[in-house]
Write a structure and sequence with these properties.
By secondary structure, the protein is α/β, with parallel strands linked by helices. It has twelve helices and four strands; from the N terminus they run E-E-H-E-H-E-H-H-H-H-H-H-H-H-H-H. Pfam families: MlaE, STAS.
Length: 371
């Protein structure tokens, strides 16, 4: 027997069997579109059997009608059906409502996480600005009292963070010059424009690639070293002891390291310029038969001095960014050894990102200025 029903006055009279098979063809919207008054009675007097699918159907109908302000009353349910209704009613929730709630919940969580992330980033930015401000205050105080500047420490960091990095800088720059010239040689040879390899290698290397590659290598080598050193000093309470004895930790720790990179970076970039151009000269000689004399003559004619100067001017800024970020992350290290690794990684990633970002800003600004 199939599920049957009949509308009588303010009642919906239920007949027969209401199970998963019999209600398959019934649509809730056919019931909802009826013009009910404020009250409706579900009369189960002639109900023979109902399963959970049938109960779910009536609960869904009751829910949808309640949204229209119609109150439902159930009559003549037998004890078994009554128990089944009560059990299902405890755990029933409209699927559309569940999806809506989930969507609301996901959106709420998303905005909460976004807010927390934004707040965290703003806090870090504020701390970094404070840290940079403290650095410039220390620079000013050292100008007032030059004897406070730790010159030996400054020289030590130039040697350790810059001069000892020269072998890897030289090798990297040589490879960059070779790769750049090799790729250009193949393309230029097709058009018989061999001599223009000098323009390409000269301008690209001196203006962009040599400063950028040098800064990235220094960021990977020296930024990690600075952060790890300062992190260990913080964990072993050396910085706290220094402050307790009245020494300004900025003058002892931060100033020599950052200024060492600011001073040394132009020298590193100059070496990198020379080596990368030498790599280009070798490839030009081997692949395009451009002699060293022709290369240097064309270099003097085609590569304006401004390209070399722009590359050298960017170098101190890169050195400052690498140094200040590395020291800032070092002071961020918590009192656990694992945090040294975490903040060392952050230091390198941040330094490389900001070096590339500032290089892009320099490129756009200088191009707009026709330089």
């Amino acid at each position: 027997m199939s599920a049957k029903f009949e509308f009588k006055n303010e009642s919906l009279v239920i007949f027969g069997i209401w199970d998963k098979n019999s209600i398959a063809d019934l649509k809730l919207k056919d019931f909802i579109k009826q013009n009910f008054k404020q009250n409706l009675i579900f009369d189960f007097k002639h109900l023979e059997f109902i399963d959970t699918a049938g109960v779910r159907f009536f609960l869904a109908l009751e829910y949808d009608l309640s949204l229209k302000g119609i109150k439902i009353k159930k009559l003549n349910l037998n004890p078994n059906a009554q128990s089944l209704f009560e059990l299902c009613q405890k755990n029933y929730q409209r699927i559309s409502q569940i999806k809506k709630d989930k969507t609301k919940s996901n959106l709420k969580e998303y905005f909460i996480e976004l807010g927390i992330l934004t707040h965290t980033l703003l806090k870090i930015l504020k701390k970094f600005i404070d840290f940079t401000g403290a650095f410039f205050v220390s620079v000013f105080l050292c100008f007032k009292k030059p004897r406070n500047f730790r010159f030996i420490s400054f020289l030590y960091h130039i040697e350790n963070s810059s001069l000892k990095a020269l072998p890897i800088i030289i090798l990297t720059s040589l490879l960059i010059g070779i790769v750049l010239a090799y790729q250009a040689a193949y393309q230029l040879a097709q058009f018989g424009a061999n001599i223009f390899i000098v323009d390409l290698v000269g301008i690209s290397a001196t203006r962009e690639l040599a400063p950028l590659i040098s800064a990235i290598v220094i960021a990977g080598r020296s930024a990690s070293s600075y952060t790890a050193q300062i992190g260990v000093m913080k964990i072993t309470d050396e910085i706290a002891a220094m402050n307790t004895m009245g020494f300004r930790s900025f003058e002892f720790i931060v100033l020599p390291r950052v200024l060492a990179l600011v001073v040394a970076m132009p020298l590193i970039v100059a070496v990198s310029d020379f080596v990368s151009i030498f790599g280009g000269m070798v490839i030009a000689k081997i692949n395009l038969d451009v002699s060293f004399e022709e290369f240097l003559k064309r270099f003097a004619e085609a590569v304006a001095l401004k390209h070399v100067i722009i590359g050298l001017i960017k170098a101190p800024m890169f050195g400052f960014l690498i140094g200040i970020i590395a020291c800032f992350r070092g002071f961020e290290v918590k009192n656990t050894t694992s945090s040294i690794g975490i903040y060392t990684t952050k230091s390198v990633v941040n330094a490389i990102f900001w070096v590339i970002a500032f290089d892009a800003i320099f490129s756009v600004v200088l191009t707009q200025m026709d330089l």
